[in-house]
Input
Amino acid sequence: MTVGGIIVARGRTSQGTPTDGHHGWRPTSAHTAAAVTGVLLLTISVIAGRADIALIGIPGLLAATWAHAARPTTPPPATLHEPPGTATPGELTATLHLPGTPTTADVVHLRITATGHRDTHLALAAHPHERRVPLRLSSVRTGPQETFTVDLRGSKHHTWEEEPTQVGGTPRLVLPASAPLGRLPLPHRLRGLTGPHSARRLGDGAELRDIHPFTPGDRLRRIDWRTTARRSPDLDTLYVRRTYATAEATAVLVVDSRDEVGPDVRTWRGYGTLRVDEPTSLDLARHAAASVAHALVEAGDRVGLEDLARRRRPLPPAAGRRHLRRLVHGLALAHPKDRASVHRVRPPQLPADAIVYLFTTLLDDEPLHLVRTWRAAGHPIVVIDTLPDVHPVIENHLAIAWHIARLEREDRIATLDREAIPVISWAGSERDHATIRFEALARAAQRHVPGRVP
Output
């Protein structure tokens, strides 16, 4: 975290607790020590009858009396401004507005804190006009994030200090970014009467199916006069061009947000703080799901969202830029809850003929149960592995536990591979190969559609 820079995040203003009059100021230890020392020396001089001791104590007592008479008033509260707009991973910024304090305090002390960052301490001299302090921090995390908390305290002549006030401390929602993807696998059966893809049934479209003799119900504008002149010069039989109808694909993004783990195994037990410069499994899931949603919506398909950790009504499949914003916002709100309270007796119900994109860490057997249930219902499935690259483990007990968990996880991936369920990794360098894997799956899915020529 640094002091310097500007902007980003949601439009919000955090304001310190205001105080009126002299309330909120207290004498410093130097002020109190001077007053106590002066009174003590005067008392000793009276008891001992020594005027020289009184001369030593009078200056301290006069200084304490003058400082008490010059007790400052509390300045207006400071405010923390965050310009309007949605926050994205990277640099999160805000601006601290300090009111002018020429007659109330000569120094303002700031302590700026943020979760996962080192504290920053700053002392600013009094200024007659409002001051703006730009704040900036770096983070790759998404979802609800705690950002800036600023503690302020003014001081006057080293004899008075203000009671600390706090601004900020309000969480901000950071939306996941999306990576460009190419072609994505589609379901075997398309739905609807219009869309960006060619279906297997006859209808209005741009892809030619065949040339066929005219039958009742064919449109006259479909007549191919060149073929008719070549095959039937006497115009005994008219030939029409038949095309494939267009349709749209339906996809459902299923985010397994039941847990959130980072690259450090020591934080998996719920202790410690996750680093802000390392994405967690849920951060990777949000990023991957946002990328898939962006690619599908841009292609004109319908996309829905299911969150395994939440029982509320899911986002039904829809299309359009406005729905894409709803999807990204829903992904940012995904977060883990208590496992005991989110156990699902039945898998989420999906629309017919929809392809499923499951984003999970594969750390337990629940994804296998979901995949097999959906496959039995005829849904094509693509599993995106969102477990981050785990750091080497030094502690023996954690190393043994991670070794067992890794072997079980590899066994689940091998089981999915034997059942012809593709698994695509989205962590580290493997993310760069995800586009190639999606392209290969899209070509393979098109070759296996019956009745169509790839």
Observations:
- Helices lie at 29-48, 51-69, 225-231, 281-298, 321-333, 366-376, 396-418, 434-447.
- The mean pLDDT is 76.
- The first strand starts at residue 2 and ends at 3.
